[in-house]
Automatic annotation (TrEMBL):
Start and end residues of each stretch annotated as Disordered: 1-23, 674-737, 808-867
Stated name of the protein: Kinesin-like protein
Subcellular location: Cytoplasm, Cytoskeleton, Spindle; Midbody, Midbody ring; Nucleus
Gene Ontology MF terms: ATP binding; ATP hydrolysis activity; microtubule binding; microtubule motor activity
One Gene Ontology biological process: microtubule-based movement
Extent of Basic and acidic residues compositional bias: 677-695, 826-838
Described purpose of this protein according to its UniProt entry: Component of the centralspindlin complex that serves as a microtubule-dependent and Rho-mediated signaling required for the myosin contractile ring formation during the cell cycle cytokinesis. Essential for cytokinesis in Rho-mediated signaling. Required for the localization of ECT2 to the central spindle. Plus-end-directed motor enzyme that moves antiparallel microtubules in vitro.
Naturally occurring in which organism (per UniProt): Cyprinus carpio carpio
């Protein structure tokens, strides 16, 4: 039956979900209940109709210094102890009821510690009905005349609503009637004294602007969330008084519109306030029984009463509900009586109850966390995940916070001192909740049918019944009805009284008249049929016209919905991008600032670098200047010192030579004295080396010191002089080298071993000594000496001179010659070069200690020997 309806209407998202960017904060109201006893200490003061002030009770003030002074909390409205249930309803719940009637969802919950008046506010008591019975009453007062027959709307078990056809609905109604023992009409029924007189008739109120071209049905569910388990309080389970079955918990599911609902939860269709409240009371009783049986504390559970209002437009002729699931609108109002918000059990909690207490607090804590995260996300533009799923209560109402719908909270407070600390926490949470914003619900799209269908249909029906009644009335012609008029339009009947048996006029006349009438009737029927057919075709045409228009409208509406959605998406995207761009701008700003700082740093460093470089440059040039100066100083002082040294050396040399000469002179004189017999006539004179030593053929350079001291005091003749006799000692080992300078000794006695005999005849001695020099050449040394007669009659040689002769490479001779071109005295010896011997070797006589450079290959060392 339902499937049939399903087949007809393909599933598609109802267009109502076009969300709104407008947001409203959660409405938080505060209700202060009267103190239990007049003389109790009060710690709350209502200081205006939006603000209350808490002050710490005396005991606490003494204990904590300054922490608990007066604190003020502001709400949308504060209701003092004298506030009536009606006044509270007017402000808090009435707008929500108006919303539900206009297809918008609402959530209302009471929050506070146990005993603060939550249940009193939500449910109330006889004579003091709370928000729940009042809401129900207002709904029924508003939709009363427009309610659909029972079972026209049928929940689809997926949080949606279907429209049943009339036959199915009728069958369901008959089934219900046969099953229930309850009298069909609630007015005749006995009312439970427990919930009688919840609302007095004079308090009844009604919503404005109810769409009377729609048909309505109210469904209620009642659940309890205890220890984070969901229980259906309206579930019909056979009660076993001996062994009661523990109630089965329900799970939460998400419907195709992403709304959360309790899967398999009983939804009872109710047609009046009384019926609805009776259902509520039934659930309440069940709850009480379960709590007693399972030893639970009702203050620790959350109770949720859900009022669902299904509405669908009437069809085109305003007679029945339109058989289109997509046109069904379901809105709901959730009334939640939360568990006591106290942190610890007020009664002695033991064993399993302690665990429960933890869970209850956990669910309220989750509620607080969710609100906190929502608030943070909204205020700081963050996108933190809201932990709705952490508890059943928050998970069930996730859509209200995430999606759309009004959310209101009544914070109940008991001004007694004992509750003070808990109340503080309640107030803080309540104030924070006000900062959360929830999307404002959007208006329901209008259905495509012309307005006023219900009224027209009503009027038509009334007219019809009236006419039918009229038709069934007397035909006496007293009232000028249509029928009478019609009858009068026929030709009048002739008198039909038969005068006698032979009267053959009356009957034929009557027959004729009747035939005439019959003909007229026939004609009229034909005319009528013609007109009716015409009218029918016109109507059909109109109908098809209307249908196509309707289709067109439907199509357009669909498109509009899509466009709306697109627009919304784009708006969201824009919002997101704006947020992102703001974020990026902020980042850029920061980066800019950082860059500036770095640039500043860079500039200063550059500056420093430059100044350092300049300094370095300056120091370098300074250093160079210094270096140059030092160099100058060094060379100056070096030169000075060199000169000084030379000067000193020369002076010293001179001095030393003079000393030497003096000594020599003394020695000569001494010798002269010793050898006075032999050298009596000799005049001591300064020997001249040049004269002595440089024979014409010799290439010896003159001594750089022109005044060398004499080695011997004796006068010596030059080599070339014929008066001297030489012992020419040439050992046998000597190599006879042709090119080697051979001393030219004319009267020499040649020996190859020292001989006393030869020495006694001569006064000069020369030893030709050969050795291999370091450069591999044979070096010949002429070691010269003077022969003295010793006192003992022997001979002694005193060596006076060494001449070194070197075999020269003739190729290298030119170089050598050049190098010896100038002697230490700078005089070139022209004559020497003509002699072959001299060309082969050069002897240089040097004074002792002379420091001449390597330009002098041949050295003559004047050796003095002590006799
Ligand atoms: P809660 O549900 O928060 O635990 P209740 O609603 O059960 O508290 O209230 C505890 C008691 O206080 C009840 O007896 C109730 O009648 C009473 N009470 C609460 N609020 C009020 C009020 N505003 N006026 C009068 N009595 C109240
Ligand atoms: Mg309560």
């Amino acid at each position: 039956m339902i499937r049939q309806a399903k087949g007809k209407t393909p599933r598609r998202l109802p267009p109502k979900k076009a969300s709104n960017s407008q947001k409203d904060p959660v409405g938080v109201y505060c209700r202060v209940r009267p103190l239990g006893a007049e003389d109790e200490e009060c710690c709350i003061e209502v200081i205006s109709n939006t603000t209350i002030q808490l002050h710490a009770p005396d005991g606490l003030k003494a204990n904590r210094n300054g922490e608990f002074k007066e604190t003020q909390y502001s709400f949308k409205k504060v209701f003092g102890i004298k506030t009536t249930q009606g006044e509270l309803f007017e402000d808090v719940a009435k707008p929500l009821v108006e919303d539900i009637i206009h297809c918008k969802n609402g959530l209302l919950f009471t929050y506070g510690v146990t005993g603060s008046g939550k249940t009193h506010t939500m449910t109330g008591s006889p004579g003091q009905g709370g928000l729940l019975p009042r809401s129900l009453d207002m709904i029924f007062n508003s939709i009363g005349p427009y309610q659909a027959k029972r079972y026209v709307f049928k929940p689809d078990d997926k949080n949606g609503m279907e429209v049943q056809n009339q036959v199915d609905a009728l069958l369901d109604r008959q089934k219900r009637d046969s099953q229930t023992t309850v009298p069909k009409t609630p007015t005749t029924r006995r009312i439970d004294p427990e919930f009688a007189d919840m609302i007095s008739p004079e308090e009844a109120c009604k919503a404005d602007g109810v769409d009377e071209d729609s048909s309505y049905s109210v469904f209620v569910s009642y659940i309890e969330i205890y220890n984070n388990y969901i229980y259906d309080l309206l579930e019909e389970t056979p009660i076993d008084p001996i062994k009661p079955k523990p109630p089965q918990s329900k799970i939460l599911r998400e419907d195709q519109n992403h709304n959360m609902y309790v899967a398999g939860c009983t939804e009872v269709e109710v047609k009046s306030t009384e019926e609805a409240f009776e259902v509520f009371w039934r659930g309440q009783k069940k709850r009480r029984i379960a709590n007693t049986q399972l030893n639970r504390e009702s203050s620790r559970s959350h109770s949720v009463f859900i009022i669902k209002l299904a509405q669908a437009p009437l069809d085109a002729d305003g007679d029945n509900v339109l058989q289109d699931k997509n046109q069904v609108n379901v809105s709901q109002l959730c009334l939640v009586d939360l568990a006591g918000s106290e942190r610890t059990s007020r009664t002695r909690a033991e064993g399993s109850r302690l665990r429960e207490a933890g869970n209850i607090n956990q669910s309220l804590m989750t509620l607080r966390t969710c609100i906190e995260v929502l608030r943070e996300n909204q205020m700081c533009g963050t996108n933190k995940m809201v932990p709705y799923r952490d508890s059943k209560v928050t998970h069930l109402f996730k859509n209200y916070f995430d999606g759309e719908g009004k959310v209101r909270m009544v914070v109940c407070v008991n001004p007694k001192a004992d509750d003070y600390e808990e109340t503080l926490l309640v107030m803080r949470f309540a104030e924070m909740t006000q900062e959360v914003e929830v999307a404002r619900p959007v208006d329901r799209p209008i259905c495509g049918f012309a307005a006023g269908r219900r009224q027209r249909n009503q009027a038509f029906k009334e007219e019809l019944t009236r006419r039918l009644e009229e038709r069934g009335g007397p035909l006496d012609g007293e009232s000028p009805t249509v029928l009478n008029q019609l009858l009068q339009s026929f030709p009048p009947l002739p008198p039909c009284e038969i005068s006698g048996p032979n009267d053959d006029v009356t009957l034929p006349r009557l027959i004729e008249a009747l035939e005439k009438r019959h003909k007229i009737r026939q004609m009229m029927i034909e005319e009528y049929n013609k007109t009716a057919n015409m009218l029918k075709s016109v109507l059909q045409e109109q109908d098809s016209n209307l249908l196509s228009k309707e289709n067109f409208i439907q199509e357009q509406r669909g498109k509009l919905g899509e466009k709306d959605k697109m627009l919304q998406n784009q708006k969201n995207e824009i919002d997101r991008l704006e947020k992102k761009s703001k974020m990026l701008e902020y980042k850029i700003d920061i980066l800019q600032k950082t860059t500036n700082i770095y640039e500043e740093d860079k500039r200063s460093l550059q500056h420093e670098l430059e100044s350092r470089e300049q300094r370095l440059q300056r120091e370098m040039s300074e250093k160079r200047r210094m270096e140059a100066r030092m160099q100058g100083i060094v060379t100056d002082s070096k030169l000075k010192w060199e000169k000084e040294c030379e000067r000193r050396v020369n002076a010293k040399q001179l001095e030393m030579q003079n000393k030497l000469w003096v000594k020599d002179e003394k020695l000569k004189q001494l010798k002269a004295i010793v050898t006075e017999g032999k050298t009596e006539n000799r005049q001591p004179q300064r020997p001249s080396r040049e004269k002595d030593k440089v024979p014409a053929k010799r290439s010896a350079s003159p001594s750089p010191v022109p005044t060398g001291p004499p080695v011997r005091p004796l006068h010596r003749r030059s080599h070339s002089a014929g008066g001297e006799r030489w012992v020419d000692h040439k050992p046998n080992t000597n190599v006879d080298l042709d090119t080697v300078l051979q001393p030219n000794l004319p009267n020499a006695i040649k020996v190859n071993a020292p001989s006393e005999k030869a020495l006694s005849k001569c006064d000069k001695y020369v030893l030709t000594h050969q050795e291999v020099a370091s450069d591999g050449e044979i070096q010949t040394k002429l070691i010269k000496g003077e022969v003295f007669k010793t006192r003992g009659g022997g001979q002694a040689v005193q060596f006076t001179d060494i001449e070194t002769l070197k075999q020269e490479n003739p190729v290298a001779a030119s170089r050598k010659r050049r190098s010896s071109e100038t002697g230490p005295d700078g005089e070139p010896k022209e004559g020497d070069w003509t002699d072959v011997e001299t060309r082969c070797s050069v002897a240089v006589e040097m004074r002792a200690g002379s420091n001449l450079g390597p330009g002098y290959q041949h050295h003559g060392y004047p050796k003095r020997r002590k006799p």
